[in-house]
Amino acid sequence: MQKHVSEIVKEFSEWGLFINQAGPDNVIRGMPDIKECGEGDLVFVESEIYVTNVQNKKPSAIVTNEKLVDYFKDMANTSILVSKNAKLAQALLRQAYVDRDLRDNGWPQIHDSAVIHETAKIQKNVSIGPNAVISKNVSIGENSTVMANAVVEEGVQIGSGTTIHANTTIAYECVIGDRCIIKSGAVIGMEGFGFAQDEKQKSYRVPQLGNVVIGNDVVIGANTTIDRATFKNTHIANGCKFDNQVHIAHNVQMGEDCLITAQCAVAGSTKIGKRMRCSGQAGILDHLNIADDVILVQRAGVSQDVSEPGIYAGHPLLPLQKWFKNMAILKQLEELKKTITRLEKSK
């Protein structure tokens, strides 16, 4: 990386990312850990606890917020960029300038060991790694990357600028949008858990013949599984982000911009609204409807529809403040029991 601060500001002008720029137009060569910064570095300061360190280290540029900018007004040799959202600035600038280049791997653009069916349609500038398998009638858009040992089964459609990491499986007829990231070990489009039983409780597989449709700008974490639908599709809308080890069952419909963290599970045919936030180890039962802007915390267990936005916790599911009150009472149960016993004896 070698960029003047003015170039960075110009390149992100459409985002309205910076509301003020002061100091010299320094050259930036890196964006390291704030504790190890120095000349030539740009750092992001969002908390007062890092101010003294940055003042001592004297990096070449600082991105900070309006609340903290006065701490740096005497740093005459440092460029100061003020942003309304320094965290967003960090995400965008690090993606643009210092992110890993997946194509810089030492292999040919399409590795000799990759197995690509003659009917596959591979657009320009697609990178395909060692031992990857691209099956018949697959379509892969421009600037996408399929890394080593990934398997893309027949009829899959992959958009532009999407990355399929190593050891990932995209099952037949699934659709992946543009600019998605599917991380290692993820499995998209395997059969969901569908069985019928006879009178002796023997189970018989019900074929799951739908697919999975994933929108644009979706991130699927490592070892996450999203099951194909029984008939139509399991749908993940634009902008959703999944942590590692998440399970989404067949026929689930998920709205835009949801954030799902590790070890969450959503059972079949549940419909989830936009912008759901789901903290670790939350669980949602099947055939439910979840409203927009629902946040699930404290290992929430959802067994009924959630019709109103808000923060919910626990099992049975409760609004967060009511859950806190119940937990406070729970800690006093032993004393409450003793009090009730004394009152009963005094009758």
Helix content: 10-25%
SS strand fraction: 25-35%
Number of strands: 38
Low-confidence stretches: none
Name the CATH superfamily assignment of the largest domain: Hexapeptide repeat proteins
Return the CATH topology of the largest domain.
UDP N-Acetylglucosamine Acyltransferase, domain 1
Count the DSSP helices.
Answer: 5
Shape: flat
Largest sheet: 10 strands, parallel
CATH domain class name of the largest domain: Mainly Beta
Structure description:
With 347 residues, this protein is an alpha/beta fold. It folds into 2 domains: 3-97, 3-Layer(aba) Sandwich (Udp-n-acetylmuramoylalanyl-d-glutamate--2,6- Diaminopimelate Ligase, Chain: A, domain 1), CATH 3.40.1390; 120-319, UDP N-Acetylglucosamine Acyltransferase, domain 1, CATH 2.160.10. Helix content is 14%, strand content 28%. The protein has 5 helices and 38 strands. The protein has a 10-stranded parallel β-sheet with strand order 7-10-13-16-19-24-27-30-33-36, with no helix packed on it. A hairpin with a 5-residue loop joins strand 20 and strand 21. The longest helix is centred in the C-terminal third of the chain and has 13 residues, at 333-345. The chain is flat.
